[in-house]
Amino acid sequence: MNAKKELLDLLEEVGTDIKCASIPHYDRYRLSSPDRVVTLKVGYTPEEWHEFLSALDFDYDDGYGGQELFGTIWFVDGTYATRGEYDGSEWWEHHKCPEIPDTLL
């Protein structure tokens, strides 16, 4: 899987822009420290956006085995995405804050 393509697919799916992000990439056989951490800070410039996408333009094994990508992406609409994983198979999971139940209002 290409990490950049996966992110762009997520953005198309959720329909909102990134506010900021931190995406550590680990070698599946050496999990003691990340090979790289791709970050995008709040208030980024167009140049920083392109650098962020360029840094994510790499392939990784998203299949079964060991998880390679971790991290969180915060979106401008207040939602966020984290990495989902099962037995090494991994993906982005989009989350929104749950509605407050009427019993708590």
Q: Let me know the largest β-sheet.
A: 5 strands, antiparallel
Order of helices and strands: HEEHEEE
Mean pLDDT: 90
β-sheet strand percentage: 25-35%
Low-confidence blocks of residues: none
Give a quick precis of the structure:
The protein is α+β, with helices and mostly antiparallel strands. It contains 2 helices and 5 strands; from the N terminus they run H-E-E-H-E-E-E.
Word description of this protein:
This protein is α+β, with helices and mostly antiparallel strands. It has a domain at 1-72. The protein is 21% helix and 30% strand. It has helices spanning 3-14, 46-55, and strands at 18-25, 36-40, 72-75, 80-86, 89-95. Strands 2-1-3-4-5 form a five-stranded antiparallel sheet, with helices on one face. Strand 3 (72-75) and strand 4 (80-86) form a beta hairpin. The protein starts with a helix and ends in a 10-residue tail after the last strand.
Which terms would index this structure?
2 helices; alpha+beta; 105 residues; 5 strands; five-stranded antiparallel beta sheet; single chain; 30% strand
List the SSEs and their pairings.
Blueprint: H1 3-14, E1 18-25, E2 36-40, H2 46-55, E3 72-75, E4 80-86, E5 89-95
Antiparallel strand pairs: 1-2, 1-3, 3-4, 4-5
